[in-house]
Amino acid sequence: MNTHIPAIFTNTPYTTGVDLQLAELLSYKQHGKLSLNAKRLPASRQLSGNYLANIKGRGMEFAEVRHYQPGDDVRAIDWAVTARTGKAHTKLFQEEKERPVFLLVDVSDSMIFGSQFVFKSVQACHLASLLSWQAKQRNDRLGGIVFNQQEVAELKPTSRSKGLMAFLHQSQMLCKNVAFKTKQQQSLLLQLKRLSHLVQTGSQVHLISDFSQLDEGCYKLINLMRRHNQVTVWQVSDPLESHLPKQVLQTSLKINSMTGSGFLKNQRQQQSYQEAASQRQQLMENNLLKYGIAHYHISSSIPLLEQFNAYAQ
């Protein structure tokens, strides 16, 4: 991969596109007010989606106790205070001002790749940074999980700048452009299980990965979180994963992967490669649509803001 950013992109937050710098993530502070247009789903899917309640998850927190007044909900009577004082008292509640936002950021082996602009892992962290600054702009609490092949950082939701800076720091530390081989490798399924225990009911959840490890177990966990939270899937991909360059279609192309190596020796095999990629993508999109989960594509070959602005209001 060419580590020099083309001149057309010199005004972007990226430096080399390979090594992630904390300054790149901090630069998204000025874009914290960007917001997404909720994707429109078919009518048959809307009830299973997450777009009906804009304040879903913003529950009610206790405010004070006062004397019971006619018309008060009897279910809100504070029986302990009533028994102690001999007079009926009722609890008052107010809407929570903060909403937990959780991010799952995958920077594992399959994400350490980029053919044109930046590594997928770098793009994933840029996206996580933008979503984090948006959460801070709304005064929401931020937490989540960042993981590579070797390490996991789990952060409980924290308000104000403390949670955001902790998340950005962990993203930068774990986004290493070295593929690790360990006996106990971290997996997407394992991190989704971890996240499902961390997420609080009514939260906003962003899943950022290439989803190369997506399987039936992952779908089940994502659907379980979707039932009580607003879940958005951000799929980070590289153009080479779906289409091969025209200039290599006439040659023998060597393919290396974590499971082995091989050659695409003729045009038929290369076409099969692209068809298999298309089928995997279609299966993923169909499953997410079935569960009513918003799904966005982010390419590693184009600056993030250029793509995000197309989704933003």
From TrEMBL:
Pfam families xref list: DUF58 (PF01882)
InterPro entries: DUF58 (IPR002881), vWFA_dom_sf (IPR036465)
Residue ranges of domain DUF58 in the record: 64-247
Name assigned to this protein: DUF58 domain-containing protein
Organism, as annotated: Psychromonas arctica
Origin organism lineage: Bacteria, Pseudomonadati, Pseudomonadota, Gammaproteobacteria, Alteromonadales
